[in-house]
Amino acid sequence: MPRSKIFNTNFDPHEVYPCPVCRVGKISHIPLMEAMGCDFCHEIFTINVEQQQIKMPSRQPPLVWRWNGFSWSEVQLEGVELGWGYGLAAISFVVLPTSLIGMVAYYFPPHPHDIISWLPYSWTILTFCYIYQLLFGFL
Ligand SMILES: [Zn+2]
Asked: What's the whole-model pTM score?
């Protein structure tokens, strides 16, 4: 039974790590293969020990994660360079819907004595959090 080495600094494919895809299951080595599999979502990852990386080949282009000694980080699309234009577009996809909801809440405020007068402002914050989470992952 492999031990969990979450706090180990080096990636060892014969140990158990949290799944970077579902964030619920654990990935462990698949016998007779140079791969690891998740016990929850059943994704299969190929291993690159030298670069401390795992790759999810079931998606094109494949997603690559690097083990930083504590968690999986730097999810990348293999062979894809994202320039500043993509970053600007991603930021605008977060800011524009949030601004739209916020402007509606500002220009059409609810009556202050309504029970749910807090709802438009909370909805604006939830819109920001939801879209940010969709684009960039968990907060
Ligand atoms: Zn999983």
From this structure: 0.55
